[in-house]
Specification:
Helix content is about 80%, strand content about 5%. With about 180 residues, the protein is mainly alpha-helical.
């Protein structure tokens, strides 16, 4: 839904964000110590490089391989049924042939359903792993923001342009990895 919204009115959204930043900055500056401190993090980089994410990705990859092997075994069984039908189907009794064809069609349908179910399960698991890590990273970012006196910390994806000097991603990764020990 957000993607559709961004595609439809990117200029209006950007103008709204700029107005919000410009409108809020003086209020924040007055309320705080007289300066605005902004940080930037790259969530994708965190998910790629932190130790917990690497470990989760390794476990996830093992799970994916196991599920692929299971699917491949089922697919091989169905292909063997198909080959047997092609080779011996003409010589079979018509009633037996019909039964074997129906069984093959059921197996193909089950195989398609299995593939779909496995893909959905893996997507959910991947999303859940990412969510768990990002929730913990969010806690670390909040604590870091308070400790270091940041006014706001933004996600790189939502920023049009920024100086690399405000990127704190590596610091957040270091803190997350230290906390995970």
């Amino acid at each position: 839904m957000l993607r559709r919204m961004f595609k439809r009115a990117p200029c209006a959204i950007l103008l709204g964000l700029w107005a919000l930043l410009i409108g809020c900055a003086p209020a924040v500056t007055v309320a705080e110590s007289g300066r605005v401190k902004i940080g930037l993090i790259d969530g994708d980089k965190i998910l790629r490089e932190c130790k917990a994410a690497k470990e989760a990705r390794a476990a996830f990859a093992k799970d994916v391989m196991a599920k692929r092997r299971f699917y491949q075994e089922k697919e091989d069984q169905v292909r063997a049924m198909q080959t047997a039908l092609k080779e011996r189907g003409r010589d079979m009794d018509p009633a037996l042939r019909k039964e074997k064809i129906e069984q093959f069609e059921r197996e193909m349908k089950d195989l398609r359903r299995l593939k779909s179910d496995l893909e959905e399960e893996l997507k959910k698991k991947d999303a859940e792993l990412a969510r768990e890590i990002l929730v913990e990273v969010g806690r670390i970012v909040q604590a870091f923001r308070k400790k270091e006196g940041y006014t706001v910390i933004l996600e790189r994806k939502s920023v049009v342009a920024a100086d690399e000097a405000i990127d704190i991603t590596d610091e957040i990764i270091r803190l997350y990895d230290a906390q995970a020990r």
